[in-house]
Amino acid sequence: MDNYINVPVAPPARNARRTESIKLYGPDAFEGMRRAGVLTARCLDGVTDLIRRGTALAEINSFVIDFAAANKSTPATLGYKGYQYACCTSVNHVVCHGFPNEKKLRDGDIVNVDVTLILDGWYGDSSRMYVVGRPKRAAERLIQIAHEAMMKGIKAVRPGARLGDIGYAIQNYAHSERCSVVRDFCGHGIGQVFHDSPNILNFGKSDTGPELRPGMIFTVEPMINLGRGDVKMLADDWTAVTRDKSLSAQFEHSIGVTDNGFEIFTLSPKGLHAPNIDLLSISA
Ligand code: MF3
Ligand code: CO
Ligand code: CO
Q1: How far is the CA of 226 from the centre of ligand 2 (A)?
Q2: Which residue's CA is minimally distant from atom 8 of ligand 1?
Q3: How far apart are CA 108 and CA 99, in angstroms?
Q4: Listed residues: CB within 5 A of ion ligand 3
Q5: Average pLDDT for residues 264-278, to the nearest whole number?
Q6: What is the pLDDT of residue 11?
Q7: What's residue 116's pLDDT?
Q8: Mean pLDDT, the chain, integer
Q9: Residues 188-218, buried b or exposed e (16+ Cβ, 10 A)?
Q10: Which ligand 1 atom sits nearest the alpha carbon of residue 252?
């Protein structure tokens, strides 16, 4: 096991703090988010090489720690509300916040890796699904649907649209594919704090909620289940699993609202939006 004693933990934000109102950011912030976002995306690109039978989840954690250190950045989750790891690794029926422990990947596993790197004070938060070997058809389909659900949510973003439009787009699509949406977790405002307002729900009614305005920055990160949407927390108080043990999949991007739509800060420079699965008819 690694010794994490010398791993830097994000210092408490000084000037930045969570607020009730939705912050509007300018060009400097967008530039900061671009840099943090692409760094996180590069980290997730690098994770691809570790995804094979026999890799311990802890090796992914070590990779993220080393990648962050080599790039003058800090993993935001390390020490966050007592969380002990540099990333979350959620395998199969784990919905989110799975610990990157000594458990080893097995053929056919699907795994979400969620990384948030802080670069010069800006938080780049993103997650992707990876598959080990050849996935079962149902697992591959779920991953495609989760990615498309996220993209449908993102594409609802433009000035004048409302927050409920995002959740509605996600929910409507997931249900049309006979999948369910996890309602216990949501996206969030982001910037110089990890989890800011507003909550970005993955369900909702169109034409409701606050109006989206240029300069808003937040994540879109739906969790989609093959079975029911209900989750159960494990005794570790972090790991969320599907109650019915059905598979769960999630993707996450950090985005900004622009004058005519959106900008995704966490796009993969290598085009590995959903690595090692043959789904990419999907643009962006
Ligand atoms: N990265 C997750 C998100 O998308 C949050 C993880 S918090 C942790 O918001 F403490 F579990 F790591
Ligand atoms: Co995340
Ligand atoms: Co997030």
Answers
A1: 21
A2: 77
A3: 19
A4: 125, 219
A5: 81
A6: 65
A7: 99
A8: 93
A9: bbbbbbbbbbbbbbbbbebeebeebebbbbb
A10: 4
The answer, yes or no, to whether any atom of ligand 1 lies below 6 A from the CB of 114, is yes
- Best residue among 116, 188, 239 to mutate for probing ligand 1, ranked by most atoms within 8 Å of CB: 116
Give the pair of three-digit tokens for residue 113. Answer: 């890796």
DSSP 212: P
Residues in the chain: 284
Residue 147 makes CB contacts below 8 A (sequence gap 6+) with 129, 251, 273, 274, 279, 282
Q: 86-124: per-residue pLDDT in tens?
A: 999 999 999 999 999 999 999 999 999 999 999 999 999
Which tens digit of pLDDT belongs to each residue from 45-67? 999 999 999 999 999 999 999 99
pTM: 0.94
For residue 160 the two structure tokens come to 């004048």
pLDDT score of 152 = 97
Pairwise CA distance, residues 41 & 88, whole Å: 15
Strand extents, DSSP E, the chain = 74-75, 88-91, 94-96, 110-119, 122-131, 180-181, 187-189, 196-200, 217-220, 223-225, 231-233, 240-242, 248-250, 253-257, 262-264
124 vs 35: CA distance, rounded Å: 8
Q: What is the pLDDT of residues 200-259, one digit of tens each?
A: 999 999 999 999 999 999 999 999 999 999 999 999 999 999 999 999 999 999 999 999
